[in-house]
Amino acid sequence: MANQKICSIVQDLIKGNKSYIKDINEKLKKHISGQHPKIAVLSCSDSRVIPEKIFDKNLGDLFIVRVAGNVAMDPSVIESLEYCVNFLGINLFIILGHTHCGAIQAAEKTRDNSANILNEIKKGFTYDDNHIIGNIKRQLDELPKRSSIIKKAIERDKLYINGAVYNVEDGKVSFLNID
Ligand SMILES: [Zn+2]
Questions:
Q1: What does pTM read for this prediction?
Q2: How many CA atoms does the CB half-sphere of 94 hold within 13 Å?
Q3: What is the pLDDT of residues 128-149, one digit of tens each?
Q4: Cα(9)–Cα(73) distance, integer angstroms
């Protein structure tokens, strides 16, 4: 191991995992044969944004793709979401942004155009004065353009994509579209 500090962090993870196994052992068995989540969530990588906790869900409930700034721009993100349509039969995607998002703040501040994620987020600024919402609206708009699989699923009413913002101050999620 690299040094004492790293070693103690890993030891803490091992301890945490032991405690997890103790709590969840019986539940794990139910999910060995496969996963059947009904919802996919594209959320930010921010450590304060934990979809399973935010929505009070558990093992097997949510298919989650996490990337800084919750942007659906590169093939690994898009193909992960396509997998939900093609193989899991998921009918609902949620693009989950959040308040105090460092990626949004960095995109607002930077004049450097070398970071792909920040460039992508900046393009969302024209969609809404609230840049967190603007970014989500752009992703809602762009995702079907970037994936014919997702576009077709939406057109056939097999997939619905909603946006939502998680407020890190009070834990509340506000959905952009509520029917
Ligand atoms: Zn964020």
A1: 0.93
A2: 26
A3: 999 999 999 999 999 999 999 9
A4: 33
3-class DSSP state for residue 164? Answer: strand
For residue 106, the SS3 value is: helix
pLDDT tens for 154-167 read 999 999 999 999 99
Give the bridge partners for 94, in sequence order: 41, 162
Select from 17, 105, 35 the least CA-distant residue to 68: 105
Ligand 1 centroid vs 152 CA: distance in angstroms? 29
pLDDT value at 1 more than 60 = no
Tokens 């997702």 -> residue:
150
Q: How far is the CA of 109 from the centre of ligand 1 (A)?
A: 15
pLDDT value, residue 121: 97
Alpha helices by DSSP H, the chain = 4-30, 51-54, 75-86, 102-109, 116-123, 131-146, 148-155
Host H or E run for residue 19 = helix 4-30
Q: How far is the CA of 101 from the centre of ligand 1 (A)?
A: 4
Residue type, 107: A
CB atoms within 10 A of CB 12: 10
> What 8-state DSSP symbol labels residue 94?
E
